[in-house]
Amino acid sequence: MSSQRLAILGAGESGVGAAYLALKKGYDVFVSDFGPVADHYKKQLQSWNIRFEENGHTEEEILSAVEVVKSPGIPDRAPIVKSLLERNIPVISEIEFAGRYTNAKMICITGSNGKTTTASLTYHILKNGGLNVGLAGNIGKSFAYQVATENFDYYVLEISSFMLDNMYQFKADIAVLLNITPDHLDRYDYKLENYAASKFRISQNQTGEDYFIYCADDAETAKVLQGKQIAAQQLPFSIEKKITTGAYLEQDNIVINIHQQHFQMSINELALQGKHNIYNSMASGIVAKVLELRSDSMRESMGNFSNIEHRLESVGKISGISFINDSKATNVNSTWYALESMTTDVVLILGGVDKGNDYSMLRELVKQKVKAIVCLGKDNKRIHDAFEDDVEVIVNTSSAQEAAQVAYHLATKGDTVLLSPACASFDLFKNYEDRGRQFKEAVKEL
């Protein structure tokens, strides 16, 4: 009897990981990418003798599959996905597929902003607390590859709405929803409620044994919760009001109360500063307390965590000017958070591929803190239109090197040059990491 065909769309980190897991589970695996496949992924697939194609999809190969694992980057309106759905061939995410093959406890973190930071911090706290834990999802080595090669008791998964859209049986033991703000609306018919519904899929299949951790201060989350039954135990966090079971702020202390477990820590001792990071730290702290980690171990981890690359990452100082790489800010909200945490005058580097951004929410912060804007993108008209009344100097540049140089000349001692683009990077760069690295290189050369 021949083994069943599993087709995988997209040969990136998640696709290649899923291919390896499928191979180990006895499937006949075929990987198909509409674009080119990166060299290191090609080498991996070849070394495992997994058949793959690039720069196009061979329909008969894919449509003969019993199931298809789709990369989160491929929208449902892609022709190949439409063909699969018309034939009732199940299309699932890598997370859904890999979740079948592990009994580890799942800690799943989603939200429009802060999920990478919160996932990384949660992983750091749990690992230092002695748990056998893996970190995957939108971050690091793919979940499927780790399920195939590791034996963790817990996983911290950073999960985007695109991954959630193709999750059906998968269940989070602990689900964290940080916030819901307009992002990726092009994938959700430009309706915020569709995007919000997608985020809430993180709570599906949960039972009374599970936990749902959310931000009580987030308006969109509150709106959805009014009309929704959540089976899991709810643990909200807030910096605006006192919470009986969950986390809140008392004076300058984070307080976490769950099942008689009381945890306190001054926000001044947190490694991550800025209002948004108090939320991220609260969410991570609640997870740690649900898993009954010791308070002293938690305090130590929350105090010594070093932030991830491309997220408010300090690149150094030149002539008293600080340079910060926040290339991961691919939406307006992320840039809002970055500006909100700045304590000096800012020369802001903005721009790239704009997903229908509404820049008006940045205006107040830009007026208060930004002395010049350096545009880094092919088409900067909307940035000029949005800020021409608030900022005297707006300059166009077309490379990371040029942007860094211009920003350096516009800044004076004590200022901060902040790369926080509020846009995707595909017009001039491979991805936001490439944009961040080129910026860091450019700063080194100043």
From TrEMBL:
Q: Where does it live in the cell?
A: Cytoplasm
Keyword annotations of the record:
ATP-binding, Cell cycle, Cell division, Cell shape, Cell wall biogenesis/degradation, Cytoplasm, Ligase, Nucleotide-binding, Peptidoglycan synthesis
Q: Does the keyword Cell wall biogenesis/degradation apply?
A: yes
List ligand-binding residues for ATP: 111-117
- Pathway where it operates: Cell wall biogenesis; peptidoglycan biosynthesis
Query: What Pfam families would the database entry show?
Result: Mur_ligase_C (PF02875), Mur_ligase_M (PF08245), MurD_N (PF21377)
Q: Which Gene3D superfamilies match?
A: Mur ligase, C-terminal domain, Mur-like, catalytic domain, NAD(P)-binding Rossmann-like Domain
One GO biological process term is: regulation of cell shape
Looking at the UniProt entry, the stretches that span the membrane are none
Q: Where is the signal peptide?
A: none
Q: Its Gene Ontology molecular function terms?
A: ATP binding; UDP-N-acetylmuramoylalanine-D-glutamate ligase activity
Q: Where is the Mur ligase C-terminal domain?
A: 310-423
Q: Mind telling me which InterPro entries this protein's record contains?
A: Mur-like_cat_sf, Mur_ligase_C, Mur_ligase_C_dom_sf, Mur_ligase_cen, MurD
Q: Which GO terms describe its cellular component?
A: cytoplasm
What EC number(s) is this enzyme filed under? 6.3.2.9
Per its record, the protein catalyses: UDP-N-acetyl-alpha-D-muramoyl-L-alanine + D-glutamate + ATP = UDP-N-acetyl-alpha-D-muramoyl-L-alanyl-D-glutamate + ADP + phosphate + H(+)
Q: Which domain of life is it from?
A: Bacteria
Q: Indicate the segments forming the Mur ligase central domain, all copies.
A: 109-287
The UniProt entry's sequence similarity note says:
Belongs to the MurCDEF family.
What is the stated purpose of this protein? Answer: Cell wall formation. Catalyzes the addition of glutamate to the nucleotide precursor UDP-N-acetylmuramoyl-L-alanine (UMA).
Q: What is this protein called?
A: UDP-N-acetylmuramoylalanine--D-glutamate ligase
